[in-house]
Design goal:
By secondary structure, this protein is an alpha/beta fold. It has 2 domains: 131 residues, 3-Layer(aba) Sandwich (Rossmann fold); 282 residues, Dihydrodipicolinate Reductase, domain 2 (2-Layer Sandwich), CATH 3.30.360. The protein has a 9-stranded mixed β-sheet. The radius of gyration is 23 Å and the shape is globular. It starts with 12 loop residues before the first strand and ends with a helix. It binds 6-O-phosphono-beta-D-glucopyranose.
Amino acid sequence: MGDRRGCEEDSDALVLFGVTGDLAHKMIFPALYAMAKRGMLRTPVVGVASSPWTLDDLRKRATDSVRRVTKTVDRRALERLIALLRYVPGDYNDPGTFAALQRALGGARRPAHYLAIPPTLFPTVIRGLGAAGLGHGARVIVEKPFGRDLASARELNRMALSVFPEDSIFRIDHYLGKEAIMNILYFRFANSFLEPFWNRNCVSSVQITLSEEIGVGTRGAFYESAGCLRDVVQNHLFQIVALLAMEPPAFRGYGAVHGEKAKVFQAMRPLAPVDLVRGQYQGYRREPGVAKQSDVETFCALKLHIDSWRWEGVPWYLRSGKRLPESAVEVLVQLKPPPQRLFADSDSTDGRANYVRFRLSPSSAVALAARVKRVGKEFIGDQHELYMQDHQTGSEAPYERLLADAMCGDGALFAREDSIEAAWAVVDPILKKHRRAIPYRPGGWGPKQADALIAAEGGWHNPTPEKALA
Ligand code: BG6
């Protein structure tokens, strides 16, 4: 863990399946540009997609993508990226596409194939790569969600492993490349003061909110095949839970972290329909690509249990949704109140007992809350936060970090096969059986039934608006 970049032989080409798509435009080109700017990208970047584009079209698209997210573009870095681009148009079902890709790759011996395509196409492309002999010596980077349920994830793992060895498969979850999320691991195990209270004896509940102001926008068709549970809960939120709940890794090295995280997923109790509230924002059914009678959830709130020695009896509440009032990710680890209620304000509901709060997005902070007496004769007080904010800027964005890691064979920040399958096993029952999605007003905190789920804990903690933190 000391040196995350335990690099092996670098990939000598990057193949981008789905290069004309949304993900490439929003995330991947800016990441490649940032790598080019740092001098970290020197290999050809071969885009593959079904659109009958020319190389010039692709260059324009990449330029547009970089200009959209970068205020002052470094012209030379952009030119370097543009010069590395190649384009192979073709149908993923056609062996001719893979033959053309092979020609475009020239003498590359260790290409990295990035599947930035709809999950339904993963098996087709992996099969095509295998049949064309393009898996030999290569790496594959697979976007989430990895599968759509336990059975399909197992099948996808089986198929991927028939073409690539496990250490050449990089299951990407960009949350694992975020600084604030990497800091959960560091904060927990680089400090000694947390450990005595980080368990069922002192923690009464944990809640995590991943809220977004935006709706599904142009991603309606993708979202219809995913929904909130598959899109962010089974992966992003569960990865945060695993880092918060895991046991200390037994040795330095990411293998130990992967092992401990997998145990958390294995200890999660499979979810039942009563543990879940599904919501859909009003207007979702009018979004492009969305079915008129769609029951796909754009919001979910759920209650999770981890049946382990450390967490037995502690409920974990997870909530995520689109068209909510604020874009933020926050964790609240709620501690139990002191055993005796000694003061005048001990019974009041004005505040919670002590807590630890992780602000994970957009800013990064950790807050420890404790009660402090107010000035005066009476023994009453207020909750104050010891607030530690990370003001560092200029670190690598998650996609840049993860792409560079995958291209040098460093799997530390990627999800392992056993974790992915165990995580699917937890959500599988509620994918198959659930209540209908309840409509909610855009700009609110989702259906009121979600509040009932957590009423026993004093309700949801809504993330602090970012403006208020400034
Ligand atoms: C993606 C989901 O994985 O994560 C999106 O597909 C979601 O629906 C996004 O908006 C959230 O990521 P971030 O980094 O903006 O919090």
